[in-house]
Amino acid sequence: MKQIKNIPLYVIIIGIVVMATVISLGTTGILLQQVIEKNERENINLRLKSTAQIAASEPIIIRGLSLNASKSDKNSVQIYAQRLANTANIDFVVVVNDGLYRLSHPNDKQIGKKFSSPQDARQTLQGKAHFSTKVGVLGLGYRYFDPVYDANHDIIGLVSVGLTEDTIARSIKTARRPIFFGLIVGLLIGIVGAIFLAKWIKKILLDMEPYVIAKKLVEKNTIENSMMEGLLAIDEQQTIIAKNMAADQLLPGIGNIGDHLPVEIFQTFFVVPAKNSDTNPNRVLFKTRAYLYSVAQLVSPAVGSLLLFRDITDFKEIVAELDGTKQYAQALRAQTHEFMNKLQAITGLIELKKYDEVNKLIPQLTSDYQQNIGYIMARVKMPVIAGFLIGKVNYAHEHEIILNIGESSCLPKLDILRREVTNIIKILGNIIDNAVDALSDSDIAQKKIDLLLRYDDEGETLVITIEDNGAGIASDQFSNILTIGFSTKGHGRGFGLTTVNAIITDHQGVFDIQSTLNIGTKVYIEYPLRSRRSM
User: Fold this and answer.
1) Which one, of 363, 7, 21, lies nearest residue 209 by Cα?
2) Predicted pLDDT of residue 159
3) What is the arrangement of strands in the sheet containing 130-136, beginning at the earlier edge strand?
4) Rounded alpha-carbon distances, angstroms, from residue 275 to 134, 176, 303, 321, 441
5) Coil, helix or strand for 246?
6) What mean pLDDT value characterizes the chain?
7) Regions in the chain scoring below 50 on pLDDT
8) How many CA atoms lie within 13 A of 337 on its CB side?
9) For the chain, N or C: smaller number of CB within 10 Å?
């Protein structure tokens, strides 16, 4: 195998083409030789037969074979036979009388002697013309025998016309000569063509050997399939020309190489970036999944577009859960620190025997607990969501906004999927953050957000109502609030409501927004939960 790799491609191509040319031309040559030899022998048969018939009907030969033939008539037979042999380009014309003696022969010494093939001669004297191959005075010959008739139609002799095998072989060889010439010319043309073909193929292959191309292709596929990011390339007709394994995993149903890219994927990843070209990398929601991606044009030559993308849904879910847990832990640490300070104060007052002050401080401590952790924990029994809300209450407080959890709020401890908990945090986080943003720029004296959580046990649906007293949304902007990337807060925003809408739409829930300019915005959500029992 290693030895084959060391052979240059152009040598292999030339060798294959030359071998194919030799085999094809050789096979053709053999078949043509057989055809030519057959045709040549047929022509020889026709020539011998026609020459014998001419000689048998010639008056000179008939007079020479007659009973009263003079010596001059017999000599004329030899002269005529030699002239006819030369004219017809045959080796011999032998005239034999009915006594089987020769009247003509290429060798003058054989005239007057007995014919060497009496069996063929007797067969002819019986009136049967025929071909025969026999060894005669001149060697192995191919002959045609024809009887000679007198005026009374009596057989008075025969004519034997023939060619030696050497002459026949030379004739066939001469007929084959153009074939050999054509084969040599064809072989030379094949070699020249093979050289040009080898150079042309090498140019197409960028002057690389096949094993190098195979190695680079394996390396390319290995690298692409080792990427965590999805890779997808399409041509100008939106046909898939390349992809890696991650692309199939991140975008199921994307199709195979050579397939037309689904329109929804093309519209989401290849068209939208043109509208949001200032966002790099781009973010998009597709079938409830969040993706980071970038698109580049394939140039030199321009053949299409390349998409690199990554699913960040799981990362966002983990961050959201960690964010809720973190805020819960921070809230507990803050409350613990505050309680420890107040307990130390109570201990100091007791040591100072100022019991009246102690009696005043304990109700205050209880009230603070009830207003913060106790109030929320009493209504929200899911620790992660409770901690998330405690953190959001403190976050709103930092912006001088009151986040009020309605007294009738009730969220029991539910046996739901981890993803459902993450989705609830996404929904609450995005809606509360939007409300805080809206109120942060407001000049209202008392900024507040009212949040109400209710769980419909019969329909297994979480009902969320959030209302703020901010500036509201202008009518000319209201129709675009669910458009991805749309925001009045500047670059890199405008994904919150789109995310919420995608989650609720995927669960066949209800998402309603009502806003009045200078009065505030109210959001109503019905989010059907998927419990573990239903899976």
Assistant:
1) 7
2) 92
3) 92-97, 155-164, 139-149, 130-136
4) 100, 77, 22, 32, 28
5) helix
6) 78
7) 1-2, 274-279, 485-487, 490-494, 534-535
8) 6
9) N
Q: Which amino acid is at 227?
A: M
Q: Are 389 and 405 in contact (CB under 8 A)?
A: yes
| Helix locations, 132-288, DSSP H | 165-204, 210-226, 245-250, 263-266, 272-275
512/432 Cα distance (integer angstroms) = 15
Outline where DSSP puts E strands in 19-154. 92-97, 130-136, 139-149
The alpha carbon of 474 is separated from its chain's Cα centroid by a whole number of angstroms, namely 51
**509 close to 527: Cβ distance less than 8 angstroms:** yes
Question: What SS3 class is residue 455?
Answer: strand
Contact 120, 132 (CB under 8 A): yes
3-state SS string for 166-191 = HHHHHHHHHHHHHHHHHHHHHHHHHH
| Predicted local confidence at residue 494, as pLDDT | 45
> Both tokens of residue 116?
């060497």
Mention every residue, 6+ apart, whose C-beta is less than 8 A from residue 405: 375, 376, 379, 380, 389, 393, 451, 452, 453
Report the pLDDT value the prediction gives residue 477, as an integer from 0 to 100. 64
Taking the C-alpha atoms of residue 40 and residue 32, their distance in angstroms, rounded to an integer, is 12
Q: Is residue 103 within 8 Å of 92, Cβ to Cβ?
A: no
Residues 6 or more apart in contact with residue 351 via CB below 8 angstroms: none
